[in-house]
Amino acid sequence: MLQLVIKRLLLAIPTMAAVSVLVFLILHLVPGDPAIIFFGDQPVTPQRLEQVRRQMGLHRPLAVQYLDYAGGVLRGDLGRSIHQGTPVLEEVVSRIGSSAELAAAAFGVAAVLGLALGLLSALWRSTWVDAAAMLVALTGVSMPVFWLAAMLIYVFSLQLAWFPASGFGGLNRLVLPAVALGFVSSATLARIVRSSVLEVLWQPYVTTARSKGLGESTVVRRHVLKNAFIAVITVMGLQLGTLLSGAVITETVFARPGVGKLLVDAILNKDFPLVQGTVLFVAVVYIVVNLLVDLSYAYLDPRIRFE
Amino acid sequence: MHTSIRASASSEAAVSGLRPRSPGREVLRRLMRSKSATLGGTILVLLVATALAAPWLTPYEPLEMAPAERLQPPSIRHLLGTDVFGRDLFTRILFGARISLQTGLVSVTIAISIGVPLGLLSGFYGGTVDRLLMRLVDLMLTFPGILLALVIVAILGPNLLNAMLAVGISASPIYARVVRATVLAAKTQTYVEAAHAIGCANARIMVRHILPSTVAPIIVLGTLGVAGAIIAAAALSYLGLGARPPEPEWGALLAESRNYLRVAWWLTTFPGLAIMIAVLSINLLGDGLRDALDPRTQ
Fold first, then answer.
1. Is the dihedral of CA A42, A47, A51, A57 positive or negative?
2. Sequential DSSP letters for B134-175
3. Ranges A32-41, A61-70, A293-302, most confident
4. Do A182 and A107 contact (CB within 8 A), yes or no?
5. Which residue in A86, A207, A218, A291 is a FRET match for A142, CA 20 to 30 A apart?
6. Partners of A87 in the β-ladder
C-alpha cells in the first residue's frame, strides 16, 4: 500500500508542473500586452508602462519568466491582485472555508440521495419505484444547477422564508446551496449505483450468501452495499469535477464568498493574477482529491492493490 | 469479383426471403423500440420545429419593448408573462431556442473537429505522437468541468462565440480519448492490414478504413455532448461570460431574471424549464442511441 501511495504521489508531480505551465501561460495568451492588462482601464503614461514591464520582468525570455513564477508559487507567492492589491494567496485562503463547507455538504447530499435512489431502483427493478427513481435522476442530470438554485431560493426563502437566500455562515445558509449542488451530482451517482448493484446482485457470492440462508436485508447490507460503496467513491471522484465547477456557479447564485465566486469575479474584472491563482488552486485541489479517491479505492478493493 | 460477391449476397437474401437491412435502418428500428428514446426524439423534433417556426408562432418580436405591459404574469395575451421591459417571455424563449440549440450544436462540432483528428493521429501513429497528445489530453482533463471553459473565456474575452469555443475546446479531450481507443481496436483488424498490404497511404487508411468505426461512439458522445454543451453555455451566459442581454439565449434570460425573482417568478421558471426539457429530450435520445448502437445489446 505504501508503495502505491509513493508511486501515485510521484506521478502527480509532473501533472502539477504541467498545470502550472498552463496557468502561467494564461497571462501571455490573453491578446495584448500584459502590462496594459495590468493597468486595466486606468490611463497610463508610456514611461510608467515601461517601468511596470521591467518590474514584471516581461523583457526576459518566457522560460525565465516561468521559472520565476514557479519559484514564487513554490514559496507561496501567487502574485498580487490587480484590483485589491492584496496577495492572491491571501485572497484564496480567506475563501477556502466557505467553499470547503459547501463542497462537503453537497457531497453528503449527493452521496445520501444518490445511494438511496440507486438502491431503490435496483432492488425494485422494473417496477414503478425504479421508473420513478430513474426519472428523478434523469431530471437531475438535465437541470442547470443555477436554475435549481434560483427555484429553491424562490420557494424556500422568498415564499416560505425558511432559509436565507444568500451569504455565508451558519447551517441555515448552507442548506439550499448544498441541496442544489448535491442534487445534480446525486443524479449521476444514482444511475451508476443502480447498475453496479444490479451487477452485484447476480454475482455467485450473493447467490452463496442467499443459499446459506441469510435474510435478504443482511445480504444487501453485507454483500451488496459494500460493493455499491466502491462505485460511490469512484463516481464521486469523477463527480468532484462537476461538484467543484458547480460550486463556482452555486456560489455566484447564493452570493457565497467562496473560491468559485472569487474566480468568476476575477474573470469579470480582468484581474489575471487572481484568475491564475484561483485556477491553480482549484486544479491542485482536484488533483489531490483524485489522488485520495484513487488511494481509498485501492484500500477498499483489495483486487486493485495487488494489480 | 466485386460484383459477383454482391450478387451472391443479394441472391442469398432473396432465397431466405429477407432484404438486407442497411445499418442505418437497423439502428433506427432499434431506436424506435425504445419508448424513452422515441419520446426524447419526438420532443426534440418538436423543439427544433418551433425554434425554426418562431416568427410565425408569436405576434411579438423578441426585442420588442412595451413599457405599459412590464412584468405581467402569464395570461392569454402573454402566455408566459412579460419582463421588466414589457417584452413577451414566450417569444423570447422561442427565439432563444434558436440560439441555445445552435450553441449546443456548434460547441459539439468544435469539440469533434478538434478531438477526432487528435484521437485518430494518436491511436494510428502511437509512439511519441501518442504520448505527447495524450499528455495534453490528460492535462486538459485536470481542469474539472467548466473550469477549463472559464479559463478559455477569460483569455479570449466574454461573448457568445468565445463561450462556444471554450465549451467546444474543453469538451474535445473526451472525443480524443474515445476515438483513440476505437482506433487502437480497429488498427489490428484484418481489413486494415489488407489495406496496408495493397499499399494504401496512411491518410487513406485513416479516413476510409478506420474513421468509419469511430462513427458510432462519436454519434452517441456527440448527442449527449449537445445536452451538456447547452447547459455549459447557459452557465457561462448566466455568469455574464457568454451571450449578453438583450440576446434571448436561455442562460442570458435566467441571468436577466435574477433581480426580479421576488416580483416575477415566471421570468426564472420558464427559461429554466425550457433548458431542462431540451436537455432531457437530448439525453433520452442519446441514451437510446447508445443502446441501439452498442453491438453488445444486439
1. positive
2. HHHHHHHHTS-TTHHHHHHHHHH-SSHHHHHHHHHHHHHHHH
3. A61-70
4. yes
5. A291
6. A80
> Do A142 and B227 make contact, defined as CB atoms within 8 angstroms?
yes
Chain B contact for A244, CB < 8 A?
Answer: yes
pLDDT in tens, B237-250: 998 888 888 888 99
Q: Which residues of B are less than 8 Å from A151 in CB distance?
A: 268-269, 272
Average pLDDT, rounded, for chain A = 81
Cell reading at A140: 437531475
Residues ≥6 apart with Cβ < 8 Å to B9: B20
CA A86 to chain centre: 25
Determine how many CB atoms are found less than 10 A away from the CB of residue B107.
Answer: 27
DSSP assignment of B82-143 equals B-TT--BHHHHHHHHHHHHHHHHHHHHHHHHHHHHHHHHHHHHH-HHHHHHHHHHHHHHHTS
Burial of residue A3, with CB atoms counted within 10 A of its CB: 0-12 exposed, 13-18 middle, 19 or more buried: exposed
Identity at B248, one-letter amino acid code: P
Cβ A151 vs Cβ A145: under 8 Å: no
Cell digits for A104? Answer: 462537503
C-alpha to C-alpha distance for B78 and B60, rounded to whole angstroms = 10
A141 lies within 8 A of chain B by CB: yes
> Could you read off the pLDDT of B174-204 as tens digits, one per residue?
999 999 988 988 888 888 889 888 988 888 8
Confidence at A136, pLDDT banded by 50, 70, 90: confident
| Residue of A25, A26, A139, A142 best to disrupt the B interface, most CBs of B under 10 A | A142
Nearest Cα neighbor of B159 from B221, B224, B241 is B241
Pick from A151, A242, A282: CB nearest B272: A151
Interface check for A131 against chain B (CB to CB < 8 A): the answer is no
* Closest partner CB to B268 (pick from A30, A151, A241): A151
Searching chain B, which residue's CA lies closest to the CA of residue A144?
A: B231
A31 phi and psi, to 5 degrees?
A: -60, 135
* Most confident option among A16-20, A40-44, B109-113, B290-294: B109-113
Q: What is the pTM of this model?
A: 0.85
Are B279 and A241 in contact (CB < 8 Å)? no
A150–B284 CB contact, under 8 Å: no
Q: How far apart are CA B82 and CA A137, in angstroms?
A: 32
Ordered per-residue pLDDT tens for chain B, 298 residues: 343 444 444 444 444 445 555 777 777 888 778 788 888 899 999 999 998 988 888 888 888 787 777 777 888 887 888 877 878 888 899 998 999 999 999 999 999 999 999 999 999 898 899 988 988 888 888 887 788 888 888 888 888 999 999 999 999 999 999 999 889 888 888 888 898 889 888 888 888 888 888 888 898 889 989 999 999 999 999 988 888 888 889 998 988 888 888 888 888 889 999 999 999 999 989 888 888 887 655 4
Give the separation between CA B122 and CA B115, rounded to whole angstroms: 10
Report yes or no: B58 and B94 within 8 Å, Cβ to Cβ.
yes
CB contact at 8 A, B183 and B125: no
Could you tell me if A157 lies within 8 Å of chain B, comparing CB atoms? no
